[in-house]
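so my prof wants the structure for this chain in the tokens format not the other one, which i didnt know existed until like an hour ago. anyway here's the sequence
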Amino acid sequence: MNIKRETINRLRLEHDRRTEVSVRNLLDGNTEGAEEDLRWLNASSELLAHTDTWWARMKLPGIIALICILISAFLSFWPVSSTHIQFELETGNVRFTLDKKWAFDPRMKSDEIYIDNIREISSGDLDISGGADAGQEKSDMELRGRNIGTGKLILEKDTEVELGGHDDELKLFIKGQALESMLIVQSVYHLKAGKKTVEGPLYFEPGIIRFRAEGHRVNIRFVSRDNWQMGDMQVSDIRFSEESAPGSGEFESAIHSGRLKLSETESERELRKGDCLVLDGVKSRRLEMSKAENGVKIFFEGSVSKIHAGPKAFLKDLTPTCLEYFYHDSRAGFLWGAVFLLWSVLWGIWNTIFRM
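here's what i got, hopefully its the right format
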């Protein structure tokens, strides 16, 4: 039935007006007038039921469908606040900020150790007086020998650490705190501390050298043939870059190779030499570092708020969107299925009551 919308609207207005008149007639005791109005109202109601347009019947479902489309579009662009990732890579250099206190125990024997910014150095076993004393200018220390041991290095929260390596050399740069530890000399040694140089064999007990280093940045370099490793550290920031030239302030990627996995979307990405990996909002759950052929091997497991990877000029945002998260999360799928089922049941009940 093709009736103009204006005609239907006029009929609805008249229907409402006569309804009000019928109520007044009944209240005034005018039953004859009310009966006539009721007959007209019944006839107009049946007519209006047959003249409902498609839009009138689909108005509410259409609005709901539009809302669902808008929500889906929003979720397809809005990134999740945190995503769980794993990666294993090899890099020539790594820089990180500690999120809690860390006791670094090298557990390796070195053939050579170099430490700069030495403020104090002492030993009850070796004659190193004059090497560096409290109140004097800071000096460097270089120790060569066989099977030199290193005590624990206690690093506080928020300390910035830079770690690099190549072949048998391990470089450690520590920024923001003083260091106190000891070196254990096993046999033949050659020590240069400031202006003092001592050397000689140890025939009986190992010699212990205690030192304190402090400055804007303390540099420690180990030369060791051992396969060193370190773990049990929590970080709030981690970067895989190094200065293209010392003091230039320009950084480039130090990544050699690796593989990245996003747990929520079960997607993986290969990292090639020179690729960048930029992480924001880092919360590490497991972080391990060990000696690699051309640098440092790193295994990381934790969460980040943002993740970008790829060549420097073409970094790609790999942060999953909310829609991707819901699509791959079986628990979220079950939840939305239950919501849809409940909505269908309530919609059916509502339609039944409305028709009655």
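also thought this was worth mentioning. Residues 330-355 form the longest helix (26 residues).
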